[in-house]
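Sat 14:20. Reprocessing the chain from the morning session after the first attempt stalled halfway. Input below, unchanged.
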Amino acid sequence: AITHYYIETSDDKAPVTDTNIPSHLEQMLDILTQEEGERDSGETGPCMEYLLHHKILETLYTLGKADCPPGMKQQVLTFYTKLLAHIRQPLLPHINVHRPVQKLVRLCGDVLAAPTENEEIQFLCIVCAKLKQDPYLRGKRSCTFINMNMYILLAPDTGQSPAEEQAGCPKEPQATAAASTSSPTSNNNNSNNYNLVTSLPQPHKEPCEIVVKACEGLMLLVSLPEPSAAKCLTENTELCELLTDRLVSFYKALPQSMDPLDIETVESVNWGLDVYNLKEDAAIFTGKRPLISFLSWLDYCDQLIKEAHKSAATVMAKAVRERFFVSVMEPQLMQTSEVGILTSTALLNRIIRQVTSEALMQEMVYFLLGEEREPETPATVAQNPLRHRLIEHCDHLSDEISIMTLRLFEQLIQKPNQHILHSLVLRSLEERNYLENKPQEEREPLENGQPHDAVDLEEDPLFVDDLSPDSRLSGSDWLGSSPRQSPDHTKSDGKTEVHKIVNSFLCLVPDEAKSSYQVEGTGYDTYLRDAHRQFRDFCGVCQRWDWRGHPKPFEKCNLDAPFFEGHFLKVLFDRMGRILDQPYDVNLQVTAVLSKLCLLPHPHLHEYQLDPYISLAPGCRSLFSVIVRVVGDLMLRIHHIPDFTPKLLLVRKRLLGLEPEGITIDHMTLLEGVIVLEEFCKELAAIAFVKYHAAAASSSP
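Finished this time. Tokens:
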């Protein structure tokens, strides 16, 4: 009937919808579907044999390509899509299906924003789905066939620059493209060379179902399990280049200066659910729309890498590292402009927060921290310029830059990546050479877990026991469900009992410098609950890493090697040592990073950070020793401040919002520093308590 239409009709201007062709095509589909349903699985009926033998699909392709009568291309695309979707038996391996499907793929995207765009994407996505489910097609033919069917993802190159696109040039969102007959990589500069990946959606345009469908199609293709398909994607297409080029263009479209708070608080972005209003976005803050576009595309790249075959994911992640992080972000982070540093650091912090795919996270970490594994020395701290610069920014002249960089590291150490913690902290503690290196027989006998000539903190005037009722931790047993991660301290093995450790931290700040006991609701309960929850979360992250439950035995440690705490801990300890002279917000962020490190269930880090009674090697410092020096300085300064205790209490109440802001108080920075110091010591005590009970509970029968 369709053939007769072309023989008998001379008017080729009438739209196809005015003819019987659509109904005839529907009838053909109905007949084929019914025929398959009436036969045994895998058996080909006479109507399907006829369609294959007489090359009906080739004929329909030719009619669709000519688009005669007008709208015929749309009808042909719909027929192909429904045929592949409704027929259960595999059709694509048949040469008389395979060839016309390849030709129709090339036809897709011939015209930008064509009326058939929706039908094109539906057709291309069903091809992707069939590739995913048919192992035969993913075998020898995978490279050529995937090359023909990934055109769903990018608009053809129009020669238009990203800046022109961002300026709002009148080009409609486009999600499909045609294929040239040449190899996709044969002429990278040819604007008519439609690569397999050259239809990536444009997230800065108005999102639509077509774009989302196109993205879903590529998700199907990158997740093909065959190595040959992954190799094809990464070696025979421009997938990596086009993904990263789009990421770079979105990043470069961002304003040079943005408020870090806007970057940090902009709503979560999902590439498939990006709905926006340009006027509303511009009214909230300048650059919101470009920022969401960038984060949306980053989310798509991240999810694509997460779904991809492992080998393809590795290649794509390395491409993002080289073509985006190294080429674009590194110069931004290394610049000298404070405004530029602040904006780029805030953006990097948001990127770290958003990335979840293992491969991309690994490459991002190597970009930031380097791949070195050996312990740091003072001579090698600048070996990786970017790592060195970022750590130095934690102690920048600009408090804003310091705070933002400290937040970045706080975010980083919570990511499920072992190399982050090894690079920043653990490689410096591997040999436990922070401990005094004396043979056991030369050491003084222990009294209550410490040398007889050591300072007894419980008898020192700075650490008196006369504390308020809520200043000690009770032996609660509600933490018993925590997993074992850190060594316990018992009398039997010569280690300090946990209550001594806990009270050592609680007694660090002298009574005259304490103010929390005078304000209701500032006890330890919150710190205990938070420490328990956070420690459990960290244990969940770290449980698959090879962290021993006990420290490395002394006899296996190289205790003669000179100890260097590492660049990161050095800067944090230096900052902690100036807690009485730094702004309140800086102190909060420094202690936040240190407390996160203390929560980590690594025995060496636990010993170094949370055991006040270890004998440190000469010239070494620990977190506890740094705090002791701060307290010593505080005691000297307290006596020079009139009405110190009432002023301290007033500042605490103002910080809690219990007192209105009034007259300026002298020594405000020091008073705020004392309050942070007291709260930090309570937090460390709670962490030590929680970690001890976790170990004790897991070791008991």
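The first strand starts at residue 446 and ends at 447.
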